[in-house]
Amino acid sequence: MSIEKIKKLKKSDLGVSILLVIGILAVVNFLSYQIFTRFDLTENKAYSISQVSKKTVKKLDDIVNVKVYFSEDLPSQFITLRQEVGDILDEYEAYSEGNIQIEFINPDDDKSTARELHTKGIPQLTFQTFEKDKAQVVNGYMGMTISFGDNMEVVPVLDKDTSSLEYQLTTAIKKITAEQMATVAFLTSNGTANLQQEISGAYQAVSELYSVNVVDLGKQEEIPAAITTLIIAGPKEKINEAQLDALEAFLGRGGNILALVDGVLTGQNLQAQANKTGLENLLAERGVSLNHNLVADVRNAMASFNQGFMTFSTNYPFWPKITSDGFNEDNSAVSGLESVVLQWASSLDIASEENIIPLAYTSPKAWQEKDKFNLNPQQNIQKTGGQQFTLAALIESNEAGEGSIIVVGDSDFIVNNNNADNLTFFQNLVDSLSLDDDLISIRSKNVTSRPIQENLGDSTRGFIRYANIFGVTIIVIVFGMTRYYLRRKSRFIDEL
What residue numbers bound the domain in which 12 lies? Predict the structure, then answer.
């Protein structure tokens, strides 16, 4: 057979192959409209809604209206945000079987809509843009309402990072469709952290999902029956016998307690002293002892300190950093976490593990200081010994009808703290006591810290660093050169 005939056959085969590929794509495209599915290859499924959200919307028995108020003349960097929000909402709509209805509205077209948004708490935003070498100011809206009957939840401003949008949506849907949400209360007596001045972030986070009350055991003889979970954050004054009786009665009727308790108090100039809270016997009777020590760890976080008119930052062993291998992977409240920083934490001793579940640990290279505390960050801190300490634990009820207790040997991790991981840790603990574990799995998807393991050698760390920088480029170059070589080889054979 001549070379010309061989070339003609190859061309005809190529034409048939192209037609087959086009036909297959057309069939796949047609089927894709009939069968809805998405593939998310990220480790924590960051770009698709979770099974929890799918199950939540499938259970809806009536219409939930989602209205997105998005101005059309916003700066170009918000164009992708509108698309990402639309993609996420499309999934909710698809899995709801028609019970979620979505509407995008441009508020700039109607002045009455703008007035309505003001009453709903969706503000008009101001953006600065640069066009034709001139700075211009643009006003617009980026908000959302989720309504069910007469109930409504508002997202005043959509975040540019849509990683938290699923949690906001599913939480809002659960909240507006539930007959009654759980009630959480903060203890405000006995020198606990001030809700507005010290733990406002934690208070606000809990208020987004729960009905929130306060309990003052200095004025109230008992804890109201409607309360599901009582949060005791950083008590500095001893809880007396009558108050302990109220807590025991609360636990006995099925109430839960989240105790964030400092075994040691740190004050100005880093002076430290043991903190007798009065909770020691209540915990010890259930198998957990809170030590009056401070735990230090080679795995720690940066802390900032003032020295005269200067501020400096340094790695501080008394701020132990718990990473993924320090969380109990069998407990949903902490299994999805990557990093939490506890500040001046005390350890817990567990007498029996029959009904006690450790939740968080230090690294195996931690040590403790007790009795005499030298917290000066500029000292040459000498590591003494090396062991792993438990810093948080769940005490499950061993009696019918009694509630559970989660105890953490630190309260400072939620005091005026902007660490998103610490806040997620706190919210997960509240949820695990007050609700099912549904929302925990959504919130824990958003990893904000993914450090390189500290036990890796310098050469391994260097390899990982440069592989991240140059790895993709090298792969593309090798692929291109290989393809070029194969094509040249194919041409050479054809010419023969």
Answer: 1-35
User: In this structure, what token pair is assigned to residue 211?
Assistant: 């009905």
For residue 12, the Cα-to-chain-centroid distance in whole angstroms is 57
Position 375 scores a pLDDT of: 84
Domain-located, residue 476: yes
Taking the C-alpha atoms of residue 215 and residue 375, their distance in angstroms, rounded to an integer, is 34
Place of tokens 């105790």: 259
Q: How far apart are CA 51 and CA 32, in angstroms?
A: 21
| Residues 239 and 360 both lie in one domain | yes
Q: What is the dihedral of CA 273, 279, 280, 284, to 10 degrees?
A: -160
Q: Is residue 444 predicted with pLDDT exceeding 80? A: no
Residue 350 falls inside a structural domain: yes
Residue 334: which of 261, 421, 263 has the closest Cα?
Answer: 421
Which of 417, 295, 448 is closest to 361 using CA atoms? 295
Domain-terminating residue out of 175, 190, 221: 175
Residue 327 neighbours by CB distance under 10 Å: 23
Q: Are residues 228 and 155 in the same domain?
A: no
Residue partners of 313: CB distance under 8 A and separation at least 6: 302, 303, 304, 305
Do 184 and 171 sit in the same domain of this protein? Answer: no
Judge if pTM exceeds 0.85: no
Q: What is the DSSP string of 385-421?
A: --B--EEEEEE---STT---EEEES-SGGGSS---HH
Per DSSP, the residues of 416-438 read S---HHHHHHHHHHHHHHHS-SH
Among 49-53, 92-96, 182-186, 347-351, the minimum mean pLDDT is found in 49-53
Tokens coding 438: 């549904």
Check whether residue 437 and residue 368 sit in a common domain.
yes
What stretches of 180-242 adopt beta strand conformation (E)? 183-187, 211-215, 229-233
Question: Which class for 480: exposed (0-12), middle (13-18), buried (19 or more C-beta within 10 A)?
Answer: exposed
Total domain count, the chain: 4
Q: Please give the backbone phi and psi of residue 259, each rounded to the nearest 5 degrees, phi first.
A: -105, 110
Quote the CA–CA distance of 113 and 465 in Å, as a whole number: 51
Angle at which helix 51-58 crosses helix 165-177, to 10 degrees, equals: 30
How many Cα atoms occupy the beta-carbon half-sphere of 445 within 13 Å? 24
- Contact call for residues 258 and 406 (beta carbons, < 8 A): yes
Per DSSP, the three-state class of 98 is coil
Residue with tokens 């086009």: 22
pLDDT higher for 329 or 444?
Answer: 329
CATH of the domain at 196: 3.40.50.880
The mean of the pLDDT values for the chain is: 84
3-class DSSP state of 156: coil
For residue 162, give the DSSP letter: G
Radius of gyration of the chain (CA): 29
Which tokens is 360 given? 């968080």
Pairing mode, if any, of strands 264-266 and 151-155?
unpaired
Output the six-digit token pair for 461: 């760390």
CA-CA distance, 231 to 233, in Å (whole number)? 6
